[in-house]
Write a structure and sequence with these properties.
The protein is an alpha+beta fold and about 500 residues long. It is built from twelve helices and 15 strands. It holds the Pfam family CD36.
Length: about 500
């Protein structure tokens, strides 16, 4: 066995003390930066091997899409007497599990990644409040589209369209099953008319109508995205660069047409930010969310970003929103005309039940009951990592009822905005992902506290060594002293 002399013991003690002290100081000073660099690398989509890429390529968080269809209960009375106020009853919810898969992924040297996404929906009858066989009566959406296309055409065109409507016995209100209005779709002779009208700028790509027809399992529907992958700066993670190869959409002028924000699932750490932007392909534009309080999930704190009245303002309160009003048509605040984005269909978006909209929209119909807890749009993000704890995106689709001279069934109608349905896309972090998020949040402090502990241990060892030195404790044993004396 190797023998350590008193001098060896002394310098070993102080050597260990110094090493532990140095490691502790390095942990205190450099651990946060070191861990941050590792975390940012893993959260980014810089390569296919990062944890962030794995979670983004096929979203692991359970997502649900809830549909609430509005049943027009007194359509017959309104058709007979346009002065009767339309009444609607909310049916559902019809809940679908939603799964996202990214495909055709290409990395670029400028720190962006191009991809397409496939969305898959599966009906969950056990979670739903209605059956897909439920029959729903609503204002005829294809008639609304045709009316919008021809309302400013020559009277002869309108009368020709009216002849077709009468011949085909088209009705102002139609009744279909919930599944037909949603994903299954239904055939309608009016679609043939839309195709035959061949109106410039109107290119309807489907042969059946349904709000989500041809979208389930489609790779092409949402378009082609190019976004920053975070490898050249985590603050850009998830921000879109182009959509369908364009930095601006053609439907809105000025800043309203900018492709800006994230797609809603991948976020850069929002620490210190008061506003965030979300680009929604369904409305071909961005939505700005404003920080408003905190949200807690399983003991984790996050910043809550909500959609405010600014989102659907018509420019009267927020001038920068005026470019969302085509041709500056005056309308009460609280809706957005997305007909240019939806093949000319007169679709108007709002929050569910006209939440935060001008009272006018609720006053012209019956059945609207806005509720902040149910109808508020928000996303809760952990500020240090950008991980979404909960997402609740709610929007309502409304159709414009026109008064069109030359079309018999619309000549006496009072112009109005009628709700068709509202939907809520929700996602909430669960299980292992919450555990991973908590570990990420604890690690910076854990490393520093470990450093403080090592410094304390190093100081303690050093103090012990100094005490032994002061008391001259580094001396040979009695046996070693006698051996030395006998040798002399």
């Amino acid at each position: 066995m190797a023998y350590c002399t008193p001098s060896c013991k002394k310098w070993t003690t102080f050597g260990v003390s110094g090493t532990v002290l140095m490691l502790g100081i390095l942990l205190i000073v450099g651990w946060k930066g070191f861990f941050k660099s590792i975390m940012e690398k893993e959260l980014s989509l810089g390569s296919r091997s990062t944890k962030g890429f794995e979670m983004w390529k096929e979203t692991p968080i359970p997502m649900y899409l809830e549909f609430h269809l509005f049943n027009w209960t007194n359509s017959a009375e309104v058709i007979k007497n346009p002065n009767v106020k339309p009444n609607f009853i909310e049916c559902g919810p019809y809940i679908f599990h939603e799964h996202h898969i990214r495909e055709n992924i290409t990395f670029h040297e400028n720190g962006t990644v191009t991809f397409m996404q496939r969305r898959i929906w599966r009906f969950l009858p056990e979670k739903s409040g209605g059956s897909l066989e439920d029959e729903i009566t609503t204002y005829n959406p294809i008639l609304s589209s045709v009316a919008n296309l021809v309302k400013d055409k020559h009277i002869l065109v309108r009368k020709g369209v009216n002849f077709f409507l009468v011949e085909k016995r088209v009705k102002l209100a139609i009744t279909k099953k919930a599944k037909e209005f949603l994903f299954e779709g239904y055939e309608d002779p009016l679609l043939d008319l839309v195709h035959k009208l061949n109106i410039s700028g109107v290119n309807v790509p489907f042969t059946k109508f349904g709000w989500f027809v041809d979208r389930n399992n489609s790779l092409e529907y949402d378009g082609i995205f190019n976004m920053y992958n975070g490898a050249n700066g985590i603050e850009n993670l998830g921000k879109l660069h182009t959509w369908n190869y364009q930095t601006d959409v053609p439907y809105w002028p000025d800043s309203c047409g900018n492709v800006d924000g994230t797609t809603g699932e991948l976020w850069y750490p929002p620490l210190g930010r008061d506003k965030l932007k979300l680009f929604a392909t369904d409305i071909c534009s961005s939505i700005e969310l404003v920080k408003d309080g905190k949200f807690w999930l399983d003991g984790m704190e996050s910043d809550k970003y909500v959609g405010t009245e600014e989102v659907f303002d018509n420019g009267t309160v927020f001038p920068e929103q005026k470019c969302f009003v085509p041709d500056h048509v005056q309308q009460p605040s609280g809706i957005r005309n997305v007909s240019l984005c939806k093949f000319g269909a007169p679709a108007f978006l709002s929050y569910a039940h006209f939440y935060l909209a001008d009272e006018y929209y609720r006053s012209t119909i019956d059945g609207m009951k806005p509720n902040k807890s149910k109808h508020e749009m928000f996303i809760a993000l952990e500020p240090s990592t950008g991980l979404p704890l909960r997402v609740q995106a709610t929007l309502q689709v409304n159709l414009k009822l026109f008064n069109v001279k030359g079309i018999t069934m619309l000549e006496n109608m009072k112009p109005n905005l009628l709700p068709a349905f509202w939907f809520s896309q929700t996602a909430e972090m669960t299980g292992d992902l919450i555990g991973l998020a908590k570990v990420l949040l604890v690690m910076p402090s854990a490393g520093q506290y470990t450093g403080y502990g090592m410094v304390a241990i190093g100081l303690l060892i050093s103090l012990i060594g100094c005490t032994i030195t002061y008391r001259r404790g580094w001396k040979e044993s009695e046996e070693e002293t006698l051996l030395t004396q006998n040798t002399l």
